[in-house]
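#struct-pred
JK: can someone run the complex with zinc ion? inputs below
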Amino acid sequence: MKKHAPSKTESTWKNAKIALSVLSGLLLIAALTSVSLRFILPDSNTSTKSSATVVSSIATTTAASLTVSSTSASAATDTLPTATPSPTVAATPTPTPTPTVTPTSKPTTGGTKDLSGYVVVLDPGHQTHANNDQEPLSPGSTATKAKCSSGTSGVATGRQEYVVNLEIALKVRDYLESLGCTVYMTRTENDVDISNIERAQFALSYMPDAYIRIHCNGADDPSVHGVSVFVADSGKYEDQLVGWGKSLGKCITAATGAKYLYCNATDTYSGLNWATDIPSFLLELGFMTNADEDQLLSDPDYQQKIAIGVADFVAKMPLNPDR
Ligand SMILES: [Zn+2]
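RT: done, structure tokens with the ligand placed:
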């Protein structure tokens, strides 16, 4: 590259640079003076101002331009080490992993559910001797129904429904209690005489989270099998009962592998009509008129699966606000 003589502009710039160097030196002195003054003077806003004024006057006597020195003095004061908090070394931001949503749902079967605080009333359907005396179908109704009908019996096992109902209800009770649930039974023996209204009133007296009437079904067609649920078509929980009843039926079929049939709302069960102030369900666990299902319903392992299904359902229920 070709060398060239310094131009006029360059030489002027050189002079300016020299002037700047001198000025820088003066400013450095001014800054140092300010620092030392700050160590002597008390640390306050007033002292900072006065130290700035001192620096300014020193600068005035030494520097050519008052304006420049004044500005520099302010700048020097602003950048005093004691006035500026030492910057915190910012840690390299660690990327925060997106939190994984942990499902809080309880295990569906056989898990460790906590049912403490829950209250359930179980009604093992029927009894040794039917009671065909009549009682009102519902409060204020002129229609009547037998106080306690006889129930069905197993085509394969020959067992009576009321016996199987109690066997299963006791398994359900024991399992619910093992999970902390409080359970009341309308009966723990077969040879009793308790009408459906009396059973409903017993359940109402505890304001449970669920009143579950445990039954087995019967049909003329031996091929019919599966789980169904009946609920009242009126009362305090009219709008929720079918949804809850479906949930109950599906919890049972999920735990047992049985076929889910339906949940029907009806006004034909006195035991439900008299208990509409609480969530009441008539659970038909299977058909004793179907040989395979009849045998399963008397199988202790299958009965235990039913208990697990009931517990899964109870865990989904809200606590009764009236209790
Ligand atoms: Zn029954």
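RT: quick notes.
Strands lie at 119-124, 131-136, 144-148, 182-185, 210-217, 227-232, 260-266, 280-287.
Residues 125-126, 151, 161, 215 surround zinc ion (CB under 6 Å).
JK: thanks, will look after standup
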